User: Which sequence fits this backbone?
């Protein structure tokens, strides 16, 4: 692990122009990562099943909410149309 000499933030490996550099996410300071140092870093991106399900549930709820919202908008639109027809008579 390496820390930024400017602000002490943990530096993270980032691909840049085909090479890997260590970059400070806070201030942007960069230093080239040597082959030997690369062995100490692994890059992973995993999403747990629980989080995946949580996102799906949120999307399902949003779809239900959108449907209810649309029904309410239709109701209000019809009321406004009827009211404007009454006013024009």
Assistant:
């Amino acid at each position: 692990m390496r820390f930024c000499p400017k602000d002490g933030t943990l530096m993270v490996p980032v691909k840049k122009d085909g090479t890997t550099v260590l970059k400070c996410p806070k201030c942007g300071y960069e230093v080239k990562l040597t082959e030997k140092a690369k062995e100490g870093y692994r890059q992973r991106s995993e999403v747990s099943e629980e989080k995946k399900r949580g996102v799906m549930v949120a999307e399902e709820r949003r779809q239900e909410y959108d449907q209810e919202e649309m029904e309410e908008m239709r109701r209000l639109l019809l009321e406004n149309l009827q009211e404007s027809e009454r006013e024009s008579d």
Q: What stands out?
A: Helices lie at 35-38, 49-88. Residues 49-88 form the longest helix (40 residues). The chain has a mean pLDDT of 77.
